[in-house]
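Backbones bend. To wit:
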Amino acid sequence: MADDYEFGTLRVAVSEDGVAQVEIHRPEALNAFSSQVWQELGACFGRVKRDGRVRCVVLSAAGRMFTAGLDLKEAAAGPLGRARGGDGDSDVARQGYYHRLFILEFQDAISAIETCDKPVIAVVHGACLGIGIDVISACDVRVAAADAYFVVKEVDIGMAADIGTLQRLPKVVGNDSWVREVCYTARAVTAKEAQLVGLVSRVLPTRAEALEAGTAMAAAIAAKSPVAVASTKHLLNYSRDHSVREGLEYTAVWNTLAHNSKDMATAIMASLQKKQARFPNL
């Protein structure tokens, strides 16, 4: 494991073929998101973005479940608790100003998954609660074990989800009625239902099989041109948030540069020769 990826709550390993395994590793707390977890997750994906060795990422979690959601004990004693009650030294406006900065910092850490130019495949097992939905909706692909279940939990703790679920989930699923139902009710969604609505693309019998499938998918992606893959992710994200016309015009500008890659000639020649192409790191 590279020194750049030493974290207290994450386990990271980069294989020779360019697949980074990022495991949320706080099993004794059911992988609940403390401030350390989300800060390290943001830092990790910031480093992945700049690491030319990495071509694809598999994001999973250790222990019984993917995550129990927000660490409520820390939240009650930390910024959320202070925002509710205040400390008597400042008024509501001043408390709100800094609480907004805290939320934005939290959002940026999770958005680092989306803005990382390498595709991220989430492998979910057991419970995926609250912030877990924020995290997986920022990923490119979601694979689940059969025991996985998903809950947009925030209404049950008296708040609206504010780290990305309400913005990304409607675009991931494309069914506004279903999204509103699960966000308003906080009901559990099984892996089977998640696949039916398009939240996950595959359901495997066990965590081990889901992780194997996610890793195999990552290896297949890592074998492609890293310029082509990074460009594809970037353009998909841009086009999702803009009109078709804007997306086409932006793509034309982007590919004016990207088409200068030697990877195109390498890929075409390998295809003609029916050989496996080999591409340099990004």
